[in-house]
Specification:
six-stranded antiparallel β-sheet; five-stranded antiparallel β-sheet; Methylamine Dehydrogenase, Chain H; 4 helices; mainly beta
């Protein structure tokens, strides 16, 4: 029997070797979002679908020439966008935790990022490669800045030493990556669970001789770059300081706070005196920044961005357009002062016209998260559930989207086909299991309400007589598939059931729960046959092979692990997803794998080779694309509009390359295994 330590250790070791030993993850350190094939290389171009960030957009920046926008996210990536077209250009993905800060170098050649993984990284924009990693902080790096000449880097962190707060700024040499000095003086609270806190914001003075910092000790401090000495402390805030900015002429400092204060303060940089306080925000203010001419101030908060007159303190304009009840965590002015870019926990960036206050463009992926995946027994269909509560049925032979099912009122957590492949079962947090007829796309008269808990897992018995479902309260119930009557319940888990599967002979049921245990049950008696621990937070989904000898595990990092239950070893790791893999499924004959992810893609894999066969991606209005790793694609009438072609740092639509890559026949051949 597999014990908890063996299972956990084998998987972690395999993931480590798969992710760091071979270095073959398709996302790389900085490329387009889909690796292209030989013909793409001939055209010196890369074809990809713009997937966008999969988590909060926490920081944004314009390039010095205003042509590019960089965004950093809690998904651990930095993305480079074309400011004019809104198309994504490059994704940088070497951080392994939140990206808290991004800035361009003064010459526009590099991007600098600071992360909760305690590192600072320098990226080359032209080739998309990681140039250097700066290591030295032992807490989250919350803010980074370039000196005006680009030769030095400043970082702010929530460092700790022997359990004590030693929140610091560090000065680095850009070329060598070596630490020049540490600035110590802030004394604040750091959240030891989330490893955040301390110095939240740093900036250089326009002449590069001084630096300012804001901390959750409620103070702003002015530092001498050459000596590292503290010049002045600005006091007056009564809550943590989220952001500081210095005016282009160096005369003023603006700061913003959270807590119960939620205030913006303008300071005289020379005297340290407070000039005025601005109080229109009712929530914490993550970002405040001066316009390029210093005449205006931009602030970001819950639901709104606000523009202020620096001299009078009067609010000039409010910008609203991000989804309701969202935090706007980042904002930046274009170099000419005509535009603003903002980032939010709705995963989008938005470009605004300052003069009119109008939203000009949204920078984002156009897909929804995939929450569940299923493969039909006859091999003809792939079913995916999405975060918008819909289900989409794909033709496994040609990649076309057949139809979309709407009916659930909350997130669909589990889907399965009937053994004869004529029906679909979907289980949702709306506490219902719905049965759909595939041929008509209609909802049948049968549904199984579950009044007490959200349903997270569902499966059919191989003979089609029974259906088993698992809920958020840890309960498992076996029902008659025809009548819906409860036959028996299974007690043993004490938390949400995320996976249920009948054995090939139907005599056993395997379950996986967030209580971190995998149990095997006797279908007839309801007794537990065996159990083992899967003590890991990274497992999001589990699937049992048709022969019952191996399982698939979907991981937080996007990896899919094939694990042999008899040999107790990892067989293969499938890499390609760029976000959490929330659902995995075997084909009926066990030769292929389907997976669904937070990156918005459904992917089909060859088990023997471990290679990706195709991606299925759906968009609004039932537009769709299916792509192969070589860059070939098939699409709905307007689906091609979501494809981008990158040549160096120039990004265009697919139109000029359509004759090369629009190949439905080749896509069908790939799906057929040819």
């Amino acid at each position: 029997m597999i014990n908890k330590f063996t299972f956990y250790a084998l998987i972690i070791l395999a993931l480590f070797l798969g992710c760091y030993g071979s270095g073959d993850k398709s996302q790389g350190s900085g490329t387009g979002e889909q690796v292209t094939g030989e013909e793409v290389a001939k055209q010196d171009a890369q074809v990809y679908v713009q997937l966008g960030h999969t988590d909060t957009v926490y920081c944004t920046a314009f390039s010095p020439d205003g042509k590019l926008i960089a965004s950093g996210s809690w998904d651990g990536t930095i993305r480079l966008w074309d400011a004019q077209t809104g198309r994504g250009i490059i994704t940088f993905s070497e951080h392994n935790s939140w990206v808290n800060s991004v800035v361009f170098s003064p010459d526009g050649r590099y991007i600098l990022s600071g992360s909760s993984d305690k590192t600072i990284k320098l990226w080359d924009i032209e080739n998309g490669q990681l140039v250097k990693t700066f290591s030295g902080h032992n807490g989250s790096v919350n803010s980074v800045a370039f000196s005006p000449d680009g030769k030095k880097i400043l970082s702010g962190s929530g460092d700790r030493l022997y359990g004590l707060n030693v929140d610091t700024l560090k000065l680095w040499d850009t070329e060598t990556g070596k630490e020049i000095r540490t600035f110590s003086g802030h004394d604040s609270y750091t959240d030891i669970i989330f490893k955040v806190g301390g110095v939240y914001s740093v900036a250089f003075s326009p002449d590069g001789k001084q630096a300012i910092s804001g901390s959750d000790d409620t103070t702003i401090r002015l530092w001498d770059i050459e000596t590292g000495n503290e010049i002045k402390t600005f006091t007056g805030h009564t809550a943590e300081i989220n952001s500081v900015s210095i005016s282009p002429d160096g005369k003023y400092i603006v700061s913003s706070s959270g807590g119960l204060e939620n205030a913006i303060k303008l300071w005289d940089a020379e005297t340290g005196n407070e000039i005025r306080t601005l109080f229109n925000h009712t929530s914490s203010i993550p970002v405040v920044v001066f316009s390029p001419d210093g005449r205006q101030i931009l602030s970001c908060s819950f639901n709104h961005l606000r523009l202020w007159d620096t001299q009078t303190g009067r609010e000039i304009k409010t910008f609203s357009g991000h989804r309701r009840n969202t935090w706007i965590y980042s904002g930046a002015f274009s170099p000419d002062g005509k535009y603003i870019v903002s980032g939010s926990n709705d995963r989008e960036l938005k470009l605004w016209d300052i003069e009119t206050g109008r939203e000009l463009k949204s920078f984002s992926g156009k897909t929804e998260f995939v929450t569940s995946i299923a493969y039909s027994a006859n091999g003809e269909y792939i079913l995916a559930a999405y975060l918008d509560f819909s289900l989409k049925l794909w033709d496994a032979a040609n990649g076309k989207l057949i139809r979309t099912f709407y009916g659930h009122t909350h997130r669909v957590e589990s889907t399965t086909f009937s053994p004869d492949s004529k029906y679909i079962f979907s289980a949702s947090r709306d506490k219902n299991i719905i049965i759909w007829e595939i041929e008509t796309g209609q909802r049948t008269n049968k549904s199984f309400p579950w009044f007490n808990s959200n349903i997270y897992a569902v499966d059919f018995s191989p003979d089609g007589k029974y259906i088993v479902s698992g809920a958020s309260d840890g309960s498992i119930i076996l029902r008659d598939a025809q009548t819906g009557f409860e036959i028996r319940s299974f007690s043993g888990h004490d938390d949400s059931i995320y996976f249920l599967k009948f054995s090939p002979d139907g005599k056993r049921i395997i379950s996986y729960s967030s209580d971190r245990s995998v149990l095997t049950w006797d279908t007839e008696t309801g007794n537990i046959i065996s159990s083992f621990g899967a003590d890991s937070d990274w497992i999001n989904s589990v699937a049992l092979s048709p022969d019952g000898y191996s399982i698939l595990l979907g991981a937080n990092g996007g990896e899919i692990v094939l694990f042999d239950l008899a040999l107790e070893q990892v067989i293969k790791i499938f890499t390609g997803h760029t976000a959490k893999t929330y659902s995995v499924s075997f084909s009926f004959v066990g030769k292929r794998i389907a997976s669904g992810s937070n990156d918005g893609t459904v992917r089909l894999w060859d088990i023997e080779t471990g290679q990706e066969i195709a991606q299925f991606i759906s968009f609004a209005n039932d537009e769709w694309i299916v792509t192969t790793p070589e860059g070939y694609y098939n699409a709905s009438e307007n689906g091609g509009q979501y494809l981008s072609v990158r040549t160096e740092n120039t990004v265009t639509g697919i139109d000029s390359f359509r004759h090369i890559f629009y190949k439905p026949d080749i896509v069908a051949e790939r799906l057929a295994g040819k």
